[in-house]
Amino acid sequence: MINSEKQPFTILLVDDRDENLVSLENILEAPNRIFLKARSGNEALKVALRNEDIGLIMLDVQMPDIDGFEVANILKSNPKTRDISIIFVTAINTELEHVLKGYAEGAVDYLQKPLHIAVTQSKVRVFEDLYLYQRELRNTIELKDKINKQLERFMFVVAHDLKSPLAGVVSLLQFMKDDERITSSEELLDYFKLMLDASTHLVQMIGSILEYSRDSHSKHSLEEFDVDDLVREMAKLLFPPSHISIEVDNKLPTIQTHKLKLQQVFQNLLTNAIKYNDKPKGEIAVGHQEDGEFYKFYVKDNGAGIAKEDQERIFNLFETTTNASSRDSSTGVGLNIMKMHVEEQGGKISVDSVPGEGSTFYFQWLKRMV
Predict the structure, then answer these.
(1) What is the mean pLDDT of residues 205-213?
(2) Least trusted range by pLDDT, from 33-37, 113-117, 263-267, 332-336
(3) Which domain holds residue 202?
(4) Whole-number Å distance between alpha carbons of 204 and 41
(5) What is the total count of domains within the chain?
(6) Which residues neighbour 194 within 8 Å (Cβ) at sequence distance 6 or greater?
(7) Long-range interactions of 73-80: CB distance < 8 A, separation 24+
(8) Confidence label for 104 from pLDDT (cuts 50, 70 and 90)
(9) What is the maximum alpha-carbon separation in the chain?
(10) Are 335 and 349 in contact (CB under 8 A)?
(11) How would residue 366 be classed by pLDDT, with cut points 50, 70 and 90?
(12) Which residues contact 286 (CB under 8 A, 6 or more apart)?
């Protein structure tokens, strides 16, 4: 619940009679409330356009210059003021035709003169809470956008700094691959090829990250590709320890989407499943099922598991679990980025986990993006 005592709420009172303005302010007075006053329709329009923080307008219907209906109509037609809630305060009858006219002009509620103090205070409190919740939501969205931009910038800088030395490693490996000291040993040659493939894959992935960071979301290209191939290739290039196996439960689908984003989700889940597996024989499984317009993918492991109190907050930025190994080595960024990738195309992500037995992460992904 928002603490309204600490957050200002601005109300514009509009009435052509001073005694009505004074009476209304006395009824609604509270420590956090700021009152603006206007004594005509024209003055109300000027005040509303000058003040961006108005959360509610208490608008008298009967005024000498332009009436409340006209004022509401003008306010709702202006992008700067159209979202302000309006309560009509009227001494005229509230028969259906007048009420409907008010709603048509943009009112959200009616109050009949003479005002009932408790009803008036209660209705205004409801609109105050709604306004403060909306403002908090806007602030949260702005903060999320700011963090996203910072993360993209961070990702660009890191990828840029890594690309050159990795490209040098690939060039050196390409030069060495025909060395007879390597080609003379079949086992050594196999290891060498794996090392070259992994390095080449990293360079390509870093190139994709750089492209992703340069372009806006709307410019990211859609690709049609086989998710099964993607996951199986990734399972090899992550080089899991010999005691950990990664299996695909069923044939994963072909999908049209932003490949890099889906790849990041799988890579994060598989990396964590490997990293935090504490069993002598680690088992990781990947699969999917149909879920309407989505595929519902899962990554299941038999690792350390996640405590119930951690299962919601691990997707928050910079949050880690109470698991000791997680506290020591996790930044709390990867799962948050993964959550954003899933949610930005309408999907949901969740985890089922039993401490000591393992975890299963589920996420939805659109079958086909357009």
Answers:
(1) 64
(2) 332-336
(3) 143-214
(4) 63
(5) 3
(6) 236, 239
(7) 73/105, 73/106, 74/45, 75/45, 75/48, 75/106, 76/105, 76/106, 78/49, 80/49, 80/52
(8) low
(9) 101
(10) no
(11) very high
(12) 231, 235, 246, 247, 248, 249, 252, 266, 270, 297, 298, 299, 300
Of 167, 195, 214, which closes a domain?
A: 214
Which CATH number covers residue 314? 3.30.565.10
Same domain, 253 and 335: yes
Q: Is residue 138 part of a domain?
A: no
pLDDT tens for 32-67 read: 999 999 999 999 999 999 998 899 999 988 887 888
Looking at the fold, whether 104 and 201 belong to one and the same domain comes out as no
Strand partners, 298: 287, 362
Parallel, antiparallel or unpaired: strands 9-14 and 294-301:
unpaired
275 and 304 within one domain: yes
Beta bridge partners of 288: 297
Residue at a domain's end among 179, 214, 249 = 214
Distance, in Å, from the CA atom of 91 to the CA atom of 165, rounded to the nearest integer, reads 78
Task: Confirm if 27 and 115 have CB atoms less than 8 A apart.
Answer: yes
| Alpha carbons 1 and 26: distance in angstroms, whole number | 26
| Residue in the block written with tokens 């408790």 | 118
Residues in the chain: 370
